[in-house]
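Input (Deazaflavin-dependent oxidoreductase (Nitroreductase family)):
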Amino acid sequence: MAAEQHRYLQAGKAASGFNAIVRGLTKLGVSVMGTRVLYVRGRKTGEWRETPVNLLPFEGEQYLVAPRGHTQWVRNLRVAGEGRLRVGRRVRTFTAVELPDEEKAPLLREYLRRWAWEVGAFFENLDTSSPEEDLRRAAPGFPVFRITYVTQAPNAR
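Output:
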């Protein structure tokens, strides 16, 4: 496996504080540029875990992109295969399918177009004008999931 496939950038104190604020606002119903609170069961404990994410609409589908790489939520979602997304009181259950690396480049470009101001530092030398080849080369370090909504859940948990 290439080093990019093991890429994982832990959140620092500033990022953790920002995430807590965004998570709180999203739970209150204030989505910051498409944010959702992701709920996914822990792969070891089975307990619900939560983290703020940016939901990416692209060509009629919905995607979750992991700008920090193979994080805990990514590992949990791989095992669970499903989760919930919340904004305010609205909670939607979904199934997830991880995309192969060869399909990620246009999604990474769109993700950067929308949220480079927030997550650009995690993409190192990539931006919206990066050549397709550079995006394809970096793709293994950025997990992407296509989500399909199953139902609307009455509660967050």
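The two ends are 36 Å apart (CA to CA).
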